[in-house]
Amino acid sequence: MNISKRLKEVSNLIEKESSILDVGTDHGYLPLFLEENRNFEKIVATDISIDSLNKLKSKLDKNSKIETKLQDGLEYLIDNEAEYVSICGMGARLIINILEKAKPYREKAKYYIFQPNTTIYELREYLLINGFKILDEVSVVEDGYYYNIIKATFGQKEDYKDYELKYSKILLEKKDKNTLNYLKKEKDRYIFIREKENISDNRKKQIEKELILIERALKRYEL
Ligand SMILES: C[S@@+](CC[C@H](N)C(=O)[O-])C[C@H]1O[C@@H](n2cnc3c(N)ncnc32)[C@H](O)[C@@H]1O
């Protein structure tokens, strides 16, 4: 089965083949790929929308071990445990809401893999101040879009500088090439906006702040 580059990278961060809960599964591409290519003991795919879940259900043959559940967020963890949870293809704020609702039982999963579509720095910040530890990050570019994928568990708070929060401490440590290209593009984009005539002073100040963060991140590639 073919899988997107984005979800392939997600699967690469899953090392043990014990149990996985895929939240917001939609077509179920990740669980289908894991069932076909790996040897998981348990694969559970959930979605809040019956229409979404039916997209996966229609692809399952009767021997499939994938369990589907119509559930909100991490409800599955109220009565169960999972080695991995994947939450991919959603906005960071939605992911944060899901984690926040599950505060009393979210530690029943060991590892979390997140692939937020937007404002990833908000998710990083949330994780760092809410008892998670970021173990790894990877970046992938697909169809012109730049995605970051975070692997996290629970652990002690780490110190992050402002630009590391925004552009990923781990990817900057790795001198990640996709991140370098992204930073260069963001720099050009902000400079272009700054040069526009009808831009307010407040927006200009915001842009200057963003450019400082970008310059700090870019400096890491010179070390
Ligand atoms: C864009 S799809 C992402 C599908 C897949 N995870 C991927 O990365 O390709 C987002 C899915 O999340 C589901 N979703 C949104 N809020 C949810 C929630 N609170 N709990 C479970 N699923 C949710 C939506 O119904 C939708 O099917």
Automatic annotation (TrEMBL):
<dbReference type="Pfam" id="PF12847">
    <property type="entry name" value="Methyltransf_18"/>
</dbReference>
<keyword id="KW-0489">Methyltransferase</keyword>
<dbReference type="GO" id="GO:0160105">
    <property type="term" value="F:tRNA (adenine(22)-N1)-methyltransferase activity"/>
</dbReference>
<keyword id="KW-0808">Transferase</keyword>
<protein>
    <submittedName>
        <fullName>Class I SAM-dependent methyltransferase</fullName>
        <ecNumber>2.1.1.-</ecNumber>
    </submittedName>
</protein>
<dbReference type="InterPro" id="IPR006901">
    <property type="entry name" value="TrmK"/>
</dbReference>
<dbReference type="GO" id="GO:0032259">
    <property type="term" value="P:methylation"/>
</dbReference>
<dbReference type="InterPro" id="IPR029063">
    <property type="entry name" value="SAM-dependent_MTases_sf"/>
</dbReference>
